[in-house]
């Protein structure tokens, strides 16, 4: 396989096409919410409009993605992986005890399909917001749309089964395998765990060496020569740049066991990134699509600024050849190009929090697309 071009993956954090976003799309569902302060999903559209101006209704299915779609077309990644953080259903009962419930109607799935995801990760803390009926509807709707899933299933075997994306090549048969799991630290209820004969998510109780070893054993059973492997993990809190020692040990154990990319998400803003033994670890990708505009309280984290991660992997080793990140911002429930000042803020912040993991973040010129780029350096002593 020597001499083959790199395999580029598009990775992102949470894609929340439910609640307010679902309301602006051509087929809005029931707007009723069960939140403490908000009872109608259209209130989140009103907050976004108050902050940044009117939102078309109905909006085209591609509207939430905005500039992300031409950016992805230009980058032409071979595999696209998103964390779909919503149920896709009109049915089900709201999960009791949860503060927030997300769902989108199956008829609005063209909005998800507009980004042409190869894998929708479902191991997160919203996929069962409308119970196991809602999860089964989600699995059926995504399958009917021809979209692969990972991290949740009709039983434990289905939840643990990786999504396999074929790669083009003269030898044929090579794939990117995407495994996905969620942890209680991100708010995944333990009772959502899949079991034999019970639908649910692949729940990993904690970021421990033993848990990583169990994932590695599943990877080794499924992997074929030439495959590249991504493990997508929903873990950690919503806010802050801290990464726990357990998360670091878990990620390193995965890489030591042969995993090529650790794709972490759950935080509402980007967290540190690392290149460990030549392999990419994203501790938190931040949100990409949501309805959070106009909600106050965490302005210091600039969660309106988002990143599209483009990771180029060496096809024969899985080592990171390059990581470029496209900065965008959320306005009017749509992704727009980030300004120079916003790009600089993202670069400086990600550079600062990633230095302890041996990575610097630099900015490319606008002539080269204005991307951010990760530069591995020797870890500090």
From TrEMBL:
Residues 8-292 form the Capsule synthesis protein CapA domain. InterPro entries: Capsule_synth_CapA (IPR019079), CW_Biosynth-Accessory (IPR052169), Metallo-depent_PP-like (IPR029052). Pfam families: PGA_cap. SUPFAM superfamilies: Metallo-dependent phosphatases (SSF56300). It comes from the Bacteria. Signal peptide: none annotated. Gene3D superfamilies: 3.60.21.10. CDD domains: MPP_CapA. PANTHER family: POLYGLUTAMINE SYNTHESIS ACCESSORY PROTEIN RV0574C-RELATED. Belongs to the CapA family. This is Polyglutamine synthesis accessory protein.
């Amino acid at each position: 396989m020597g001499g083959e071009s790199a395999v580029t993956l598009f990775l992102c954090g949470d894609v929340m096409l439910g609640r307010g976003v679902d309301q602006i799309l051509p087929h809005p569902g029931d707007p009723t919410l069960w939140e403490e302060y908000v009872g109608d999903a259209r209130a989140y559209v009103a907050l976004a409009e108050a902050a940044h101006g009117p939102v078309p209704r109905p909006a085209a299915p591609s509207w939430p993605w905005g500039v992300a779609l031409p950016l992805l077309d230009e980058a032409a990644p071979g595999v696209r992986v998103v964390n779909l953080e919503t149920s896709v259903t009109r049915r089900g009962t709201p999960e009791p005890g949860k503060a927030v419930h997300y769902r989108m109607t199956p008829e609005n799935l063209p909005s998800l399909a507009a980004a042409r995801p190869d894998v929708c990760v479902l191991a997160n803390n919203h996929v069962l917001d409308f119970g196991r009926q809602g999860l089964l509807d989600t699995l059926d709707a995504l399958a009917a749309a021809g979209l692969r899933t990972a991290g949740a299933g009709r039983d434990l075997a289905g939840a643990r089964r990786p999504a396999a994306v074929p790669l083009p090549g003269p030898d044929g048969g090579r794939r990117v395998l995407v495994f996905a799991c969620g942890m209680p630290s991100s708010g995944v209820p333990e009772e959502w765990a899949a079991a034999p004969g019970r639908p649910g998510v692949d729940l990993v109780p904690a970021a421990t060496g033993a848990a990583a070893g169990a994932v590695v054993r599943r990877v080794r059973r499924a992997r074929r020569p030439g495959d590249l492997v991504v493990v997508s993990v929903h873990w950690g809190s919503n806010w802050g740049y801290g990464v726990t020692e357990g998360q670091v040990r878990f990620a390193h154990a995965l890489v030591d066991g042969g995993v090529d990319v650790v794709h972490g998400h759950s935080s509402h803003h980007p967290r540190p990134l690392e290149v460990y033994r030549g392999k990419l670890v994203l501790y938190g990708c931040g949100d990409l699509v949501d309805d959070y505009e106009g909600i106050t309280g965490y302005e210091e984290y600039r969660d309106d600024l988002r990143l599209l991660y483009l990771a180029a992997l060496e096809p024969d080793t899985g080592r990171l050849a390059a990581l470029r990140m496209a900065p965008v911002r959320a306005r009017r429930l749509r992704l727009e190009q980030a300004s120079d000042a916003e790009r600089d803020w993202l670069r400086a912040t990600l550079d600062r929090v990633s230095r302890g993991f041996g990575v610097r973040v630099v900015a490319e010129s606008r002539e080269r697309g204005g991307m951010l780029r990760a530069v591995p350096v020797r870890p500090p002593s």
